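User: Structure with FE2/S2 (inorganic) cluster, tokens only please.
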Amino acid sequence: MTYKYVGKSVPRIDKDKVLGGAEFAFDFEIPGMLWAKLVGSPYPHARIVSIDYSEALRVPGVVRVFTGDDFPFKVGLYAADRDVLARGKTLYYGQPVAGIVAETLQAAEEAAEKIVIEYEPLPYSLSVEESLSPDAPIIHEEMSKYKHAVFIYPKPGTNIAHHTKVRKGNAEKVLKDADVVVEKTYRLPLLTHYYLEPWTGVARVRSEGTVEVWSSHQSPFAVRELLSKSLNIPMHKLVVHHLYTGGGFGGKAGLLLEHIPILFSMKLGGRPVKLRLTARENFFFMAQRAGYVLKMKTGATKDGRIIAHWGEYYLDAGAYADYTVNMARAIGLTATGPYEIPNVHVDSYAVYTNKVPTTAFRGFTMQELHTAFESQIDELAHELGVDPVEFRAKNLFVPGKSLTAIGERLKEDAGDPLTPVLEVNKILSNVGIGPRKDKPWVIRSKGIAAFWKGPFQPSSAASSAIVKVNEDGSVDILVGTGEMGQGTITALTQIVAEELGIPPKKIRVSPHRQTDMVPYTWQTVGSRGLFSESMSLLMACEDLKEQIKEAASIAFTVNKDMIEVRDGKACVVGEPWHCIPIEKLAIGYMNEKGVTVGGPLIGRGYYVPPRNVLTDPETGQVMEEGHLAPFYTFGAGGVEVEINLLTGEIKVITAATVLDTPEVNPGLAEGQVIGGAVMGINIALREEIKYDVRREFKGIYPDGMLLNPCLTGYIVARAGDIPKKFEWKFLGVKQKDAPYGAKGIAELTMIPWPAAIANAIYNAIGVRITDLPLSPERVIAEIKKQKPELLEKAMEYLRINLKGGDNEH
Amino acid sequence: MSIKRDKAQVLWREYFPDFDYYKPKTVNEALELLNKLKNDHAIVLAGATCLSRNFRARKFEVKHVIDLKGIPELRGIKYAEGEGLRIGPVTTFHEILKSEAIRKKYTALWEAAKQYGDFELKFRATIGGNIAKSSPQNDSSPPLLVHKATLTLASVEGVREVPINEFFTGVTENVLAPNEIITSINVPEPPENSRSGYIKFRRSAEDRAVVGVAALVSNPGDRSKRIIRLAYASIAKTPVYVKEAEEIFRKEGDINSLIDEAINAAYKYVDLPIGHGKRGQDLRASKEYRMHLVRVGTKAILKKLIEGVEVF
Amino acid sequence: MKDVEITLTVNGEKKKVRVSPKESLLHVLRDKLHYISVKANCYRGECGICTVLMNGFPVKSCQVLAVETDDADIVTVEGLSKNGEPSLIQKAFIEKFGFQCGFCTPAFILAGHYIVENMPDATDEEIKEVLNGIVCRCTGYKQIIDAIKLALQWKKEGKS
Ligand SMILES: Cc1cc2nc3c(=O)[nH]c(=O)nc-3n(C[C@H](O)[C@H](O)[C@H](O)COP(=O)(O)OP(=O)(O)OC[C@H]3O[C@@H](n4cnc5c(N)ncnc54)[C@H](O)[C@@H]3O)c2cc1C
Ligand code: FES
Ligand code: FES
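Assistant:
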């Protein structure tokens, strides 16, 4: 079946971003607004002895200076572990210890220089290993008093913020009998999202007591819920405004720093307060992505079946664990990637360290898991001497049959795990492996990785939507999801256009949200935005159509089921001359005699994931038959790379992505595919938040400092770094209870790259690299360790042949 | 443990510090001003690409800023066959890239300008600012070193000419007196039959050098006339000219052994003063990898200049 | 230093503004003149998000002192549409999906505008070179490059 609007490259509706005038929290101001500035701790772990801000108060324009003692409570998401401003002790270098509020930002900046703090430095930990060692400093001494979500299991008295267990079959025993076992440890560094809009929030308290905040976030309702809980403000007295958000990638999910301007405003008679970070401050004050240590052991039989997987996964959560506790849960529960493995034994932990706090990141642990797991898969295949594609084919989930690591049976129409792998392999089939003819020190290669992911959300993650018909027949859509660039609002207009048969240009979704004016949705995360909002909207459109039919049936005096809605009209079935445009019904139908029936047309719909269930704390198995997520998207990625043996530089020439789902808007989908690939490839090759874990730079940089909080130190991809060629394909495999069969893709596009590249390196030169990033320096070091002869051979090509006296060319 | 008293960390700022701003029209006017204010936190400004960020970082106190961009004498490129090249310090990298003379005769400098920073910075950043900043990562310095450039430094007390090799004294340190500025960059006519080039290893399309290698080669096959010079960025606390290389390449023997010998000479300079007891290391690269790049880079640039083979 | 009055032209209009040495051109444009299409991220010259055209060239406005911009000629995205009609480069960005979150978009549009006006035969590599100084974390750049190429083609075809 073909559609008129769904599946078409309908242009984005947020054109004001191109024309000028798009408004972000970054830009938002209120007359009379004050500016806040935060200052950070110069120690990674220290007792605060005193804070002297008398000098700061003397700077003209300064209104107040706040310290931790002004806010004697903790805030947090799954665990209330976080001080508003450090109280008693600081837990990481850069942690906010005081906030200055002034009439201008200039005054606040000037005053910030003048705060003097006395500290007593404490021993600190910069790695999971240090935090788990017996003599580790305990970072959260009061952990037992923290409030926790029911599915989070901390271990007071240690640095363990959460522990998830998955037990299926008997992995330890079976591994002993396996014909081949691959055992490796994979290390992934902390990352930053580097969204381009630094976090910003403006807050005020209205005179009648309503608290309002405008901030840069992904999910307005999550911000409201967490603020309400943390600050004890009833939800109807708390209005969260969402403007355009300049990128999030998980880093703006949940509660960010909204509580800070709100609390400042509350203490200043409700005056509006703005806190806007610079990129460098954003590194220290916002949460980043955790680091990972993934220990894995996977075993297979001679005939190519994976029979057991054992894992210990550690997430370096930093000083505050925010989403990271739930991420430790996510990576544990999806431990085996898209493969059916009968025996699984996994423990995953979130571990506190004296580093920046950590939180969600695009993919919610699935890039990290697949980076390790898809390397294991390739290694097993090599050990067994079978083709990695065939090996995958043999072990991938079979929807309708397979049981996942947590005992969830995948639905018949869950998707297609296998075809993407075959398709990617086909796209790369012409790529040969071996040295380039013109530059033999450059080796061409290819590698692939499969993946899957669904939104990792609570079983109650609901959403809702409203569709209103205006008096002229145009339509307004009200939803609660945030627009941070994915193009959801454009795709939603396509769906409503299709349902009602009116052109998208007659439909509007405001990019702005105000929690008291739009219907509820849980969060804009997990690639669920388009899926959940569309499901709600489909129901809302059904509801609306019923109302239209009702009104039209009165107008035409026929039975309601004799009416159909198409092309923006209500018509009597089989009598196309008997039609009435929906604008005539928009606020009720008035007949020739002036009698009005019906009323304004407002369709309402909602979506709650069906049969989402919890897992058992001891075994990680589903508590009853059901699902962890309302959909899973399956896919594969492949790369053609060039490995420069002289410098260790890896260049990705081609990046190929295949996803099983249909696409709602090819222009938008292309944006997600390319954007995800470029980010994922860059994470594979370049990205890393650096700490002096080995204390090599002691005395050179401040103790425990995040060492590269800027773009000269943290390398993001530039235009000149992207692959020459992108290939992508959507297979169009539909899920029954999905909007037009389509599933989420936004995070998926980022997953396969590190594993695919690491596999490509191995395929060409037999060097296996387990740690990221695959930087030139690391590649050279590993070649020197594993295949030193390759390097010396490459150097030979640089020998100069001088013919006596001749230097002409 | 003991108690420490510290200023709280201001992690970044939007605003510059307060200062007086001057925009003189002549060199003399600038020198007079600088001389008058030299003991009162005065600094000269060119493209501000580096200073704007040092101001925000509050790297040093600043009360007077003397902008050199209003002085026409300090801008422009002049080349005369046989006499060589003169570049005004306030010439931007963009202007350097437009010069045919530099592209043909001083290719290393042109290639450095090409790989310097990014497109937008090139419209603002000046070669004088690059030299005066005296960072180990300076892209313009290795090319100027292999071309044996000199700098004209001027103050109210007079003018002196300093070989660029003697200009740098430490990380962001040089021989400029507090009342002195660079007024000209002078590069002699290159040796006959010579070619020069610059290779910059970087981590992305916009990055400072992890290691930069410049070379100049003339008559490589004829030992009596052979000149080979090597200079490096980002291997030590200053840009490095490996003077031993000149001698080494005059020796007899297989050119490849001589190159290895020159590389060993260059290794001795690898000494970035960052990292305790492990000098040569910084956040961009370990000492081992840096030495590896010195080796690869040296061989690659010579391969290119002698045999015409583009390695990268 | 006391504030000084400078005169600069923004999008063809002459503006007199009082500025202090503490401010950059970025502050003048955003805070004093309210051209909010000019965004910022790093205030260090690294991200390129604050790009404007100054005297015809793309520069990072956070690196330009306000006091040195007397007589400067500035163009921001607000100045590209003529009589409500978007410029070629703007239309091309819409056509090619050259933006997502939109925060970097004004900077890329101005860089693209510079290419369209000054580099009619720009190759892919040359386009990338111009863009290397500006960061986009959403799009992966391809659709931005496609948009610039489309605008170049339109310009060749005489479209306006
Ligand atoms: C994002 C970014 C990327 C960069 N990338 C590179 C790179 O790839 N390679 C590289 O080499 N550098 C790089 N730099 C550093 C910097 O841009 C260059 O050093 C630039 O050439 C400085 O020139 P400027 O005119 O902007 O100097 P300014 O910032 O104006 O001044 C720099 C210093 O030089 C002094 N000075 C300027 N002119 C004179 C003069 N005539 N006489 C005496 N002193 C003078 C100033 O007082 C100041 O101390 C980068 C900087 C940034 C912000
Ligand atoms: S804000 Fe100016 S370059 Fe980043
Ligand atoms: S569109 Fe979001 S940073 Fe470019």
